[in-house]
Write a structure and sequence with these properties.
This is Heat-inducible transcription repressor HrcA. This protein is α+β, with helices and mostly antiparallel strands. It folds into 3 domains: about 80 residues, Orthogonal Bundle (Arc Repressor Mutant, subunit A); about 160 residues, Beta-Lactamase (2-Layer Sandwich); about 90 residues, 2-Layer Sandwich (Enolase-like, domain 1), CATH 3.30.390.60. Helix content is about 45%, strand content about 20%. Helix 1 packs across helix 4, helix 2 crosses helix 3 and helix 6 runs antiparallel to helix 13.
């Protein structure tokens, strides 16, 4: 009996399985023993091939659709194929040039850059491109400004190093004069520019406990302004998806109920966001085939992702979602190279502070 995970596959069985899967990935049709005999290059009888195929089926690596005498790989068989039966090559030079050319080199917000990455991944693979959006608090602060509003309110303008601008309105117990707000902004910019919001809050707590600190002297009438300006905010996590309609072109995903569940998952994003967060926590490329993702809407799909980041911090993940019948040897290098180029772009942006 062949080990279900393939450790005991002999050379002939591995070669036949590799041949079967490669053929299936090309045309999506069950592969028969006669085709395997011609394509594998093995000098064995059709009966021997049928026996090996029966063993592979017993091991759960291939299956026989009831409408055909041929066999197709199972998710377990595809997993073995990706893990040990193919040799991944670097992304071809022309594809790397395309990625470099189409990712915007100039100043742009991180969200715009990520949207471009999602669209580019979809165009490169003809699947759905997905990119998780990091929290804005993951980026260092570049500048803060205060604008007085009626009724003791203040508009807080936070500018981050990724060129994103965030506006918050703070309600104070009593109004502050314009010169007080300017003085507070100058102090906060001089002390905290270049730090992330979590780090700023830590420093603020220390300073606010010290009654002799410069911050308390400047904001003696309203220390809550500084604390409220950098307070944590709920939400902000998101996933950008491009090219969902590409998936309608694949017969294995064409079932209306399956498409409805898949598009609902894209629309709601909750499960997709959870999956991308799992992927972001693991270095390198992650691959989920069929039910491996743990989300029923993706049972008929494969998800290929790679994490990206800047300045030694992981910020999220990029990837594609497509049918399990995909050219893994091409898709994986595309996703990996895109994550690397995105990280490079974010690192360049961070050095402009």
């Amino acid at each position: 009996m062949i080990n279900p995970y393939g450790h005991d596959l002999d050379a002939r069985a591995r070669r036949l399985l590799r041949t079967l899967i490669a053929q299936y990935l090309v045309d999506g049709e069950p592969v028969g023993s006669r085709t395997l005999s011609r394509s594998s290059g093995l000098d064995v009888s059709p009966a021997t091939i049928r026996n090996i195929m029966a063993d592979l089926e017993d091991a759960g690596l291939v299956a026989s659709p009831h409408t055909s005498a041929g066999r197709v790989p199972t998710p377990r068989g595809l997993r073995l194929f990706v893990d040990s039966l193919i040799e991944l090559q670097p992304l071809p030079h022309e594809d790397m040039i395309r990625l470099q050319r189409e990712l915007p080199p100039g100043p742009t917000t991180t969200r715009d850059l990520l949207g471009n990455v999602s669209t580019l991944l979809s165009a490169m693979t003809r699947f759905a491109g997905v990119v998780s959006v990091p929290r804005q608090a993951d980026f260092p602060l570049r500048h803060i400004d205060f604008v007085p509003l009626p009724d003791a309110r203040v508009l807080v303008i936070l500018v981050f190093t990724d060129n994103q601008v965030q506006n918050r309105i703070v309600q104070l117990a009593k109004p502050l004069a314009s010169h007080e707000l300017e003085q507070a902004a100058n102090y906060l910019n001089s002390q905290f520019a270049g730090l992330r919001l979590d780090d700023i809050r830590t420093h603020l707590l220390i300073e606010l406990r010290e009654t002799s600190s410069e911050l308390n002297r400047l904001l003696a009438s309203s220390v809550e302004l500084a604390a409220a300006s950098f307070a944590p905010q709920a939400g902000g996590d998101d996933v950008l998806v491009s090219g969902q309609t590409n998936l309608m072109a694949y017969s294995e995903l064409a079932d209306l109920q399956r498409l409805r569940e898949l598009f609902d998952a894209f629309q709601q994003k909750n499960e997709l966001l959870q999956l991308m967060e799992v992927c972001a926590r693991a270095p390198g490329v992650r691959l989920f085939i069929g039910e491996e993702s743990g989300f029923s809407a993706l049972d008929g799909c494969s998800v290929v992702t790679a994490s990206y980041g800047a300045q030694g911090r992981v910020l999220g993940a990029v990837g594609v979602i497509g049918p399990t019948r995909m050219a893994y040897e091409r898709v994986i290098p595309v996703v990996k190279a895109t994550a690397g180029l995105l990280s490079d772009a974010l690192n360049r942006a961070a050095t402009t502070l």
